[in-house]
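If I may wish for something, please walk me through the protein I am sending here so I can picture the backbone:
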Amino acid sequence: MDNSKFYLCSAVLLASSYLSLYGSLRHSHWIIWAIGIVIALGIIYVFYPHSWRYVINYSLIYSSSYSSILFIFLLAERHKLFILLGALSAIFSIYVAIKTLQEVVIKRNEVSDIQYISTGLWSLSLLLFIIFSASSAYSWVKWALAASPITPYIVFEGILIALIPYMLYIPEKILSLYHPDALIAEMLINCPNCGVPLITVQGTCPHCGAKRDFYYCDSGEEHFVKCPYCSGITNANAQKCEHCGEKLEILCKVCGRRATASEYLRTAQ
């Protein structure tokens, strides 16, 4: 997804989500709430084809954080068991967030040969999502008990909605580059020409000296590399991948600069 499409999608998504929020605050406008939800989910499904399922994770984080606050601050007086349920809900919310973070970072690392995508701000947005979900729930409890106006609740809900496009955008960029067969390709260590097991050798980034694995066939005296685009094993001295036709330029994970496979192999060991 390019930036222009992201901004357009975000604008429509935010508008529909805020429309849904307005409908939820006006009990007689439940149809507006439903329309906003349907539009938002439709936008996510169409424009985030790879990461739309993360909406489920975010929904679990939101609902668990919300439940923990409701159990502890609203229902705990009825029975102490609700305190335990609140603690378990909070733990579950954090667990889902950690698993989501772990999955995205692992896949980010697997596509870093093609494009390095920073997940620092995205990780922060995930943390903020948990905090603001709990804050929103607490504000709602205070409003329900007539202890404060509804304004803080609206503000926190608005912030949560504003976080959603970015929280979907980064996983979408990563997953659009991710190929499930990349893990299988790691097992293809036999020479594609003669079938002899390949020897792992290390090439050096010509810009910063960082090491990278390549493969060498003793029988044919040829070097091979895993294509960063299709994960196929291809001749490292070729200009393009023999499988997908992409130019064999390796993105260094350390300095972020590109170089050809042959440039890496000048100092192969």
Summary: The chain has eight helices and six strands. The beta strands are 199-204, 211-217, 222-226, 233-235, 249-251, 258-260.
